[in-house]
Amino acid sequence: MNNRIKEQFWGFVKTPPLWNKTPLFGLTQFEFPQIKETDDFSPTYEIPELNSNFVLGKRMEFFFDHLLQHSEKYEVIVKNLQIFKGKITLGEIDFLIKDRKTSTPYHIELVYKFYLYDPSFKDPAARWIGPNRKDSLLQKISRLEEQQLPLLYEKETLQILNNYNLPVNEIEQQVCFKATLFLPKGIKQPDTREINTSCFAGYWIRIGDFTNFEYGDKLFHSPPKQDWPIDPSANEEWVTYIEIHFQIMELLQKKRSPLIWMRSGNNYFERFFVVWW
Q1: Which of 87, 104, 156, 229 has the most CB atoms in a 10 Å sphere around its CB?
Q2: Domain range summary for the chain, segments of one domain joined by +
Q3: pTM of the full structure
Q4: Which InterPro entries match (predicted)?
Q5: 116 vs 57, 120, 137, 152, 197, CA distance in Å?
Q6: Four-way CATH pick for 199-275: 2.40.160, 3.30.450, 3.30.1490, 1.10.10
Q7: Which residues have a Cβ under 8 Å from the Cβ of 161 and sit 6 or more positions away?
Q8: What single-letter DSSP state applies at residue 188?
Q9: Which DSSP letter does residue 35 get?
């Protein structure tokens, strides 16, 4: 794929926030910096860390920082601020930034997730889970509320804030929570009024539903996780149903649910997960 990192960057930028202006779970969504898509952005040159760091979450942090650094509205005070109590790490604050106009300081926690809707849970809020069932929306909200956001008020953090001349009572806490959502194939969109419907991007199935009858004439690609934000239309390498079926089976045996890009006639693209559970 040409300009792979650039495509990752724009995939991140275009991923919608999980909710809009009305707070969800008591959390306020950060107003994402506006940026126009141009051809002169060279991420491998401007963000050299991407050459060595391949973890999806860290990539998104670099992209977010890049946006803030090029923003006319915000100034980055400090990022990835680790808080220690003696030799024990209490946690890390993602970003402390300042509005250039109002001088309002913000503590921003960045979240970038892919969630699948599992209707087997009784609680509707518990139905959003990670592709491998290792995490969930509620778990992440709980971590934000109980660990990440309260970290700002720890005694050890307050000492550091003094060095930046930041009174803690003036700092507003927000989250930049971007997400891509997938429903079970064939299910109607659930009544999730609080959730931004622009986040719905595809569906999920089990391997028994991935039949030659329905999918045999299509072309496929299973991107590595760091490429998940990319629009499938940017991909150039495609394989047949037989080839992708073999790849999927290998991943399912390892209890890994792959994201699949599908290309059909007239360059129509779809995204879906094949889950192991």
Answers
A1: 229
A2: 4-184, 199-275
A3: 0.94
A4: DUF1853
A5: 18, 12, 10, 31, 14
A6: 3.30.1490
A7: 167, 168, 171
A8: P
A9: -
